[in-house]
């Protein structure tokens, strides 16, 4: 199974999965979002269920929001056969460059070759680090420090897109809603300067539409927790 790559030159919609159920992924990805995101940081996924979820999302591509910016977490996320990873809490260009090295095979990085699904692709997969056919890497800006360093983070070679985590960023800014909006605009401006897509987590359809209108090209159409909650609430 070869992971398909979404076209980042166009707006893409995400479906965000936290509950750890490949079955929910399979049901939800029938004609909805462009990309399935398995949240390995805050979600209930283990290695087997995340592996199975990539197939459940097929033929649509999957991203893994990994638990941390570490060699083992990024490697395990990509070993599922996912098209890419989203790395949380990236505050500096040095951290962004480290994520790039973790995500790519030599000569671009130092990722170890292995896993079950990657072996289906053999030598072609192992050589992916030398070309643009390699994994897509998104890094998250979720702190005031990240915003201060945004220009250098976005400019980092090998970073394909930026994704804003508004909840953690809001906490970092002391709950100041105006500061959050100003920071989001600053991140978007830096992405436009460097010609890279900018995304932001959106909790509902209204926020999805608003952020798209503002120029954010990677947004969340729906999440499994909120979808299940709203469906049962409507039934009740």
Keywords summarizing the entry:
236 residues, 8 strands, 43% helix, alpha/beta, eight-stranded parallel β-barrel
Number of DSSP helical runs = 11
The major sheet is characterized as: 8 strands, parallel, barrel
**What would the average pLDDT be, to the nearest integer?**
92
Counting DSSP E segments of at least 2 residues, the number of strands comes to 8
Strands in their spatial order, largest beta sheet: 1-2-3-4-5-6-7-8
**Helix percent band:** 40-55%
Low-confidence stretches: 127-132
Listing every helix as H and every strand as E from the N terminus to the C terminus, the arrangement reads EHEHEHEHHEHHEHHEHEH
Rg for CA atoms: 17 Å
State the secondary-structure class. Answer: alpha/beta
Bulk shape: globular
Indicate the proportion of strand residues. 15-25%
Distance between the termini: 41 Å
Secondary structure elements and pairings:
Blueprint lengths: L11 E6 L4 H7 L6 E5 L7 H11 L4 E4 L5 H9 L4 E4 L5 H11 L18 H5 L9 E6 L2 H5 L1 H6 L5 E4 L1 H7 L4 H18 L3 E3 L4 H10 L3 E6 H12 L1
Parallel strand pairs: 1-2, 1-8, 2-3, 3-4, 4-5, 5-6, 6-7, 7-8
Describe the protein in words.
Helices cover 43% and strands 16% of the residues. Helix 1 (22-28) links the parallel strand 1 (12-17) and strand 2. It has an eight-stranded parallel barrel, surrounded by seven helices. It has helices spanning 22-28, 47-57, 71-79, 93-103, 122-126, 144-148, 150-155, 166-172, 177-194, 205-214, 224-235; strands at 12-17, 35-39, 62-65, 84-87, 136-141, 161-164, 198-200, 218-223. With 236 residues, the protein is of the alpha/beta class. Helix 1 (22-28) runs parallel beside helix 2 (47-57) and helix 3 crosses helix 4.
């Amino acid at each position: 199974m070869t992971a398909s790559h979404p076209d980042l030159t166009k707006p893409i919609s995400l479906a965000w999965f936290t509950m750890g159920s490949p079955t929910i992924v399979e049901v939800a990805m029938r004609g909805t979002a462009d990309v399935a995101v398995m949240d390995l940081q805050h979600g209930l996924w283990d290695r087997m269920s995340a592996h199975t979820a990539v197939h459940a999302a097929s033929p649509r591509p999957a991203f893994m929001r990994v638990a941390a910016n570490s060699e083992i977490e990024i490697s395990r996320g990509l070993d599922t056969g996912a098209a890419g990873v989203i790395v949380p809490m990236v505050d500096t260009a040095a951290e962004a460059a480290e994520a790039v090295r973790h995500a790519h095979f030599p000569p671009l990085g130092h990722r170890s070759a292995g896993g079950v699904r990657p072996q289906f692709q053999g030598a072609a997969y192992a050589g992916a680090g030398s070309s643009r056919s390699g994994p897509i890497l998104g890094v998250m800006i979720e702190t005031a420090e990240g915003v201060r360093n945004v220009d250098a983070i976005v400019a980092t070679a090998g970073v394909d897109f930026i994704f804003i985590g508004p909840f953690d960023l809001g906490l970092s800014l002391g709950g100041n809603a105006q500061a959050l909006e100003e920071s989001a605009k600053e991140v978007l401006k830096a992405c436009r300067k460097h010609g890279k897509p900018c995304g932001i987590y959106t909790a509902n359809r209204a926020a999805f539409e608003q952020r798209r209108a503002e120029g954010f090209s990677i947004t969340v159409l729906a999440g499994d927790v909120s979808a299940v909650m709203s469906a049962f609430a409507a039934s009740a």
